[in-house]
Every structure is written in structure tokens, then in C-alpha cells.
Specification:
Blueprint lengths: L2 H12 L5 H13 L1 H19 L7 H14 L6 H20 L2 H28 L11 H7 L20 E9 L2 E10 L2 E9 L9 E5 L2 E8 L2 E7 L3 H16 L1
Antiparallel strand pairs: 1-2, 2-3, 3-6, 4-5, 5-6
Helix pairs in contact: 1-2, 1-3, 1-5, 2-3, 3-6, 4-5, 5-6
Bound molecules: zinc ion.
Zinc ion binds next to α1 and α3.
């Protein structure tokens, strides 16, 4: 079973609406696929938050506004299952705005992260299309790191991974998900990896978190006070290797 198919069925699985054979296939997939396992967990968290929340009837106008906002964030995802969750999240978000509760955080944090990941992928793709996107072209971390001074209010750690087969290509300042951050470009054969670096500001990733979006692999981790988000069309195994090396070399 493929991820797309499994994602479509997660809600039905959760609602116990699947025939045994399909149910087994989805369960089997989510046991081997980290992404889908996480999606299922998030769905369960969202659903149980909704179940626990006090139900208010949101005024129709507020409900419509939240629903529109959620839809805007999820363009491109066209399954009715997803729309059901969006609608549910929307009515829930509306409820939570009125009621105020922890569960709203679940929805809101999820949407924010989703938005940030989508923006990071878009920024990576833009950089692939435009070679001039480099602010500094250098394979020397001692040139790249000071280049950021005065351009950002934090100093990104820049690791030399050339010996491990991930040469530094250059860097730039990018504007992603409404904030300025450092974008480091690394290479691997004919692939490019963009690593976006920003102060963690309360959002920390306990362990590297893998995800994929539009055919790109994404890996997020926290090292020191900084959050890293790597985006690449490189396979997830090598991207994981890259992230581990980067983590080791920037932790000191
Ligand atoms: Zn999957």
C-alpha cells in the first residue's frame, strides 16, 4: 500500500469503518511507514482533543472563516477524508476560540508546522530554479558563517561535511513562513540539500523528524538553540545520514 492510499484511509481506520482486509493493509503500512504512523497519531490526538472539548455551536460566520483558513492551508490535498478532518478541525478551532483550551494548540501547532514545511519546500524549489539565489558561493564554512553577521540576528553553525561527501555549495538569507532565516546549500552527487536554520524559539524537535512533501524529503531537528529543517530530493536514508553528521558537527 502506498502512503497516499494509506492517508486516505486513516480516518476510516480510526473510525473503524474498514473491511478487515483493508484494515490489515493500512495497519501494516503504518507499522513500517514513520510518516503515516505519525499522521495516525496526530489524527488520534486531534480526535481525542475534540472528544474531550466542550462543544459550543460556533456562530456560522466564524465557522466559515476558520474553514476557509484551513482550506487555504491545505490546497492540493483533495481527498474528501482530508476535507472531513479539515471541517472537523475548523469547527473544533471555532469551538476552541470560544472555549479556549489546550486542544486548540494541537490543531494550531500542526497547521503552523504544516505551513512552515510547505514554505520550506517551496523555497528549496525556488533555489533550484535560480542559481543566483546564492548570497555567498563558497565551500568554506569559515567564509560562509561570518557572511551572515549583520544579516541575521543569530549565527548559524555551518559544518564542513565535504569529507563525508556532502560539499557545502553556498548560502543565502531566505524568507520562509514569515521569518528570515539562514539557508545553507549542500550537495550530494547531482542532488541539492537546503538546510534552513532559525532560532528554536520554543519549538524544539526532540528527535530528527522525517516527513515528505511533493516528492521532497524533509528532516527537522534541534541542535543547541537552533532548529534545522533540511529539504531535498535525496533519498531519506542519505538525508538522515546528512542530518546525523550535521548534528554531530554543530553540537560542539
Ligand atoms: Zn506511508
Amino acid at each position: 500500500m502506498k502512503c497516499e492510499e494509506a492517508r486516505e484511509l486513516l480516518e476510516a481506520l480510526h473510525d473503524d469503518e474498514l473491511v478487515p482486509q483493508t484494515r490489515a493493509a493500512v495497519l501494516e503500512h503504518s507499522q513500517v511507514c514513520l510518516d503515516c504512523a505519525r499522521a495516525l497519531k496526530e489524527l488520534e490526538a486531534l480526535r481525542s482533543a475534540i472528544a474531550k472539548a466542550e462543544r459550543f455551536e460556533a456562530p456560522p460566520e466564524l465557522r466559515a472563516r476558520v474553514l476557509r483558513a484551513v482550506k487555504d492551508r491545505s490546497t492540493g490535498v483533495a481527498s474528501w477524508r482530508w476535507r472531513t478532518t479539515s471541517a472537523l478541525a475548523a469547527s473544533y478551532a471555532a469551538v476552541a476560540i470560544l472555549g479556549g483550551s489546550l486542544a486548540y494548540e494541537v490543531t494550531s501547532t500542526h497547521l503552523q508546522r504544516d505551513f512552515a514545511v510547505q514554505e520550506a519546500v517551496a523555497a528549496h524549489v525556488r533555489s533550484l530554479l535560480d542559481e543566483r539565489a546564492f548570497g555567498v558561493t563558497s565551500n568554506d564554512q569559515h567564509t560562509v558563517r561570518p557572511w551572515f553577521a549583520g544579516k541575521l540576528d543569530f549565527s548559524p553553525a555551518v559544518a564542513n561535511l565535504e569529507p563525508e561527501g556532502f560539499p557545502l555549495l553556498g548560502a543565502r538569507v531566505d524568507y520562509v513562513a514569515n521569518r528570515y532565516l539562514a539557508a545553507l546549500e549542500y550537495g550530494r552527487r547531482n542532488h541539492k540539500i537546503t538546510v534552513f536554520v532559525a532560532p528554536s524559539a520554543g519549538e524544539r524537535f526532540a528527535a530528527p523528524r522525517p516527513a515528505s512533501r511533493n516528492g521532497y524529503n524533509i528532516l527537522e531537528w534541534t541542535s543547541g538553540d537552533l532548529n534545522y529543517r533540511a529539504v531535498s530530493d535525496l533519498n531519506d536514508q542519505e538525508l538522515q545520514e546528512f542530518a546525523t553528521l550535521m548534528q554531530q558537527k554543530t553540537e560542539k
